[in-house]
Specification:
Number of domains of chain A: 2
Low-confidence stretches of chain A: none
CATH class of the largest domain in chain A: Alpha Beta
Oligomer: homotetramer
Structural class of chain A: alpha/beta
Mean pLDDT of chain A: 96
Strand order of the largest sheet of chain A: 13-12-11-10-6-9-8-7-14
CATH superfamily of the largest domain in chain A: Dihydrodipicolinate Reductase, domain 2
Order of helices and strands of chain A: EHEHHEHEHEHEHHHHEEEEEEEHHHE
Shape of chain A: globular
CATH architecture of the largest domain in chain A: 2-Layer Sandwich
């Protein structure tokens, strides 16, 4: 019997993209074995899909409550150790809550919940239970994001004085201009999607990245959201001013109507001694600028990178790795945490990151609805 | 005797960078001949420099007032037709005023004046006198900026819904962190530089570019300026939210403490049907994005470009042209205006652009000082 | 019991990079299950490693001959269906030969063998047995390589008139200049590595890519190889002129002493109607040039791509995929071939590609040793 | 009276592109004044054009012989000091010859002559007369080409082991495929163009750049030229193997049928300690690679550049300069040579560069016509 971590999965069946991403990521370092789950709300589809994955029929469950009950009956060295929650947003909270209460570690897709209150509640339980809880801000697993984080914390660019972050997409553009389409898309339905579309879905990624790489907390936000049309209240574009607890200021710009943009997440951090720039669509490069030396272009896999960056690179320099590899690195870190091996916090985003993200979403919407005023985030 | 336009120059002597830029630009299309001027406040230096340029000693003047008086005495087909004002900012207004009043056409460096009020005053005189008046926002002369402007006005990207502009420099970084240095640089002295450093010097460029290429007016601004240190009131970094008269929103971010950045002016305009992106540091490229066709990379000099773009390209595609060529195109347009030849407004920035720029600077500073609130620009 | 393809593996244990690449690739589409193998010549290490992968001890074999014997005894629906051969080059031939003779499908690392003669021999057996045989030229699995191939075969760029290919690395540079180092590296030992170092290892990749994307066969080669030092006969740099059966000519340049280069494989194909350019280090882009329209930049995942390209992309545009994903696509194609599902030849490189590669290596070395003359390849 | 250098011009009238390039270049540093010339073989056109430039009618000549005679009669401090020869290739030799014989310095467009023999003859006269003679390989004036040359001569990349150069254009593609067009273009007529089209026009640029930046001489060449069609003997595509007097080898690839390429001149030089890469279409960047440090991207105008590079940059970093500025730098160097000021050889290409270029063209064609064999260049 292998010593792999026994992984359960909720959601991600059929043609689900997020499902592929998590399954490939979990297999990447030979640390996990998928042993049970509920991949699809339709039971026959669920069974068919799970069999394709090679699961034992006894552990293909009818719903997540049953999974929790049945798995809890199994021997400790047989039952699921960690569950990946890949369901629609509003299900994250009830599922994660019960999983924690029943002593399962959790890997949860972002956004963590649909409200800040729910997020705080989850965090409380997680702390009581002292379980591993990861929130999959996927992009944080890229080797050059890790390198950027490490270089900033090591003082390579000095005290931070300016941050410029963006996450630009254009996919809503063909939807937003037709009344029927824009009022039938679930993303633009507050009941299904929460109080924010653009900030909730991608602005949070940029926010998380900003706090991760700078090692600083955003103190307050001033947001100007755009809806384009009056008949739908959901933001689809956001220009957000941010301030840190220090003198440093910056912006987070996110959009789903930046026509022609795909997944253009970028973060530039400017310090007294230098700057670092990174782009998600060309993730294996990191640009290091200083006042008067030539710009340096760091690439993943080189021995000049920090060990946490190198730990996230499987092949030598020049062999491009991508988003599956990034998520794989997150799963690798979680595996170490579950097995009580040595790991660094920066190896995977925690429930704290999820909680911060929910606070950011709510404060951004509040700033906009109150007429673009500064709103402070909670500590 | 040649039929070249007789050009006078105020300022730009010695090692002045702006002087080289204007002289080379004026010579580029064989339209101008420098015949008189005051290049340097020190008379012997002035004479020595002007002689190097080949000027007749009789037209090397002791100061600009003398130049105006003496040149006005000359025959109409001998005297200076247009004067380039390249002196420090606070001299633009008095010089341009007297030049206009004495019937000289004017080419003036930006910012037009040091206050909005002065700018309006100049505009009033210029209108009464019906003289040619160009403000040298240099970057507007690039062929691909012209192409961008034309494509947007032709509807290539449809109705504009988002604008994202930046002008990032880092040159103040080595200055700002030392108290003595930051309080002895003229750029950071409000008496010499006006009420704004960063917005006044480079934010205005981005603002002008935004209004030029979109063909729209910014209706209101909300600005968060940064000074980094309390002992100097001048902004060195600015994050500005902008709104247009339509639904469209955007940002202008400008900085002089974006460590390692050189002259990183970029403008992205997103419309319903597509987007256009341009970068000053690689000026011969224009990126055209749409929802689901491959991105197109336009290059200067190709026959697919509009004639106003091609008019600004001297050699076939693949021969890089730069900032001298861009300024040369502005001078070419001004020559046509002076000689009453056919030209398009987009060939050079007018006094209106200068006036708008001054309004933008003052409103931005007002927004910041009032606590980051929306301030409307004048029509 | 799952219906996954039962995969055996020879080699790739321990920290082997090629091992990780194949394991991750095999798991990517939930088509394979690793059930047996010999990962390491040292039996205890082999067992320890295989257990980590979750293998049943009964199918961790002492050597490949035993594996063949024992697996052949198993029921048809239990025994290994395909074996990945990841061992050093000189073992490819004996292993692949016995595997074929005992009716196992084969996935073999490149180069196929150490001589052209061996390659022909393998091909003969493979044809007689009618088994699936893939040679893992990894880069051919990239979505934009597939798109390039398809566009050329569809006539997008017209008749080909010029091909310019390169594969530049610099990793041997720190080795080659020290006599002791260069004469102790196995890559530079003809007994272990065959008659060629640089052409054998990476020139063949470029050659394979050239023939794949153009759909044409290289007719003859003229090669100038470089050894830098006289005390080692192995080529470490190669400039190769190529001619196709038509008028088209080109070059393949490959090097292991291109200091600072990592894995810089590029291929440019110029036709009467247009050109296509692709670079391995930024693999999700394909550049389409024509005489006088803007260059088009195609990206993976867009619906404008051919279905064979889209079949190799798991996530929407803007989510970078890399070399693991490329190899995953090859494994996916092989799975279809094994399961007699519909597939296209371009989904994975065949034994024919392996045979061509061996001919290319031998002819290139022959051209050089005979004084840089043209040598024809076999049909 | 100014102390500018009195410049005469032969050719370059009307809409001539080369005429604009030289005129702008000559004016860039206020060192030259155009005082006489023959711009057009048609005298009335010549006069009209020259007047537009502001020339005195007495110095607008009917032909170059008359110009030489008449200018020679003028006082030494009035007569033309240097003549720019911008006429079609076959006129370079007779014009330059007489100019030298009559003691005029010469700036001559490339190729220097139409045969190697003529080139040697010119060099003989130039040496006897000890006059300044520049051959305008325009691209050598770029600041980052100068920086590259200096870094290599300073040992930054160590001993050179590999050179990879290309000059790819596609402009002949729409011409070559139609029999009538290809046999009526002067470029493809050996009587007008010399024995080579592609190598003569652009291959020589790449060759000159290779010898300039490496500081080494190409010892021998092996060329495979392409004509595409049998009814025209002129090469339109060339793949050339090169060897230096040391162990270093490389290629020069040039083409006029690389469909979609514009002016894609690139040169990569790999040494024991590092590599340098430069591209003409983005000329303000220089890429410095080493075995295991991040790539450095040098930009023009920075103080880390050598003084000969900085001397060729007029504005601070981030203000793109282009091909006019590059030619301007060549004219600046020539001015210093004429005025006996201090200058470095690398400031402008000499008659030696012109002679080497002619030898390269003839030896390349010889190699091809003899069946792609190695041919040695003269020392």
């Amino acid at each position: 019997m292998s010593n792999k971590i026994r992984l359960g999965i909720l959601g991600g069946g059929g043609d689900s993209l997020i499902g592929v991403l998590h399954r490939v990521a979990s297999s990447m370092f030979d640390r996990y074995e998928i042993v049970g789950g509920v991949f699809n709300p339709n039971y026959p589809d669920n069974v068919a899909f799970a069999k394709k994955l090679g699961l034992n029929e006894s552990r293909i469950y009818v719903d997540f409550e049953t999974m929790i009950v049945e798995e809890s009956k199994l021997d400790k060295d047989e039952r699921i150790e960690v569950v990946s929650v890949l369901t629609p947003n509003f299900l994250h909270y009830p599922m994660a809550k019960q999983l924690l209460e029943n002593n399962f570690n959790v890997i949860c897709e972002k956004p963590l919940t649909t409200t800040y209150k729910e997020a705080l509640d989850l965090k409380k339980i997680q702390e009581e239970k002292n379980l591993v809880f990861a929130v999959t801000y996927t992009y944080t697993g890229y080797p050059m994001v890790r390198q950027m984080t490490k270089m900033i914390s090591n003082g390579s660019i000095g005290k931070i004085q300016k941050v410029d972050a963006q996450y630009l997409q254009g996919w809503l553009n063909p939807v937003i201009h037709e009344k029927e389409k824009r009022n039938s898309t679930w993303r633009l339905d507050p009941k299904k999607s929460g109080i924010s579309c653009c900030v909730g879905d991608i602005g949070t990624h940029a926010f998380n990245m900003v706090e991760l790489v700078t090692g600083m907390k955003v103190k307050s936000v001033l947001a100007d959201l755009n809806t384009l049309y009056d008949d739908n209240p959901m933001d689809i574009d956001a220009n957000i001013l941010i301030r840190f607890s220090t003198n440093a200021k910056g912006t987070i710009r996110s959009s789903q109507i930046a026509t022609g943009e795909e997944n253009n997440l970028r973060i530039n951090v400017y310090g007294e001694k230098g700057a670092l720039k990174w782009e998600q669509e060309n993730p294996n490069y990191l640009y290091h600028l200083t006042d008067d030396a030539p710009m340096q272009v760091l690439k993943s896999g080189h021995s000049y990178n920090d060990e946490i960056s190198l730990d996230g690179t499987k092949l030598p320099p020049g062999h491009p790795e991508g988003i599956f590899d990034s998520m794989g690195n997150i799963y690798k870190g979680v595996a170490r945490a579950i097995r009580k091996e040595t790991f660094q916090d920066a190896e995977f985003p925690s429930i704290d990151d999820g909680v911060r993200g929910m606070d950011f979403i709510e404060k951004t919407v509040e700033s906009n609805s109150k007429g673009n005023i500064w709103i402070e985030l909670n500590n």
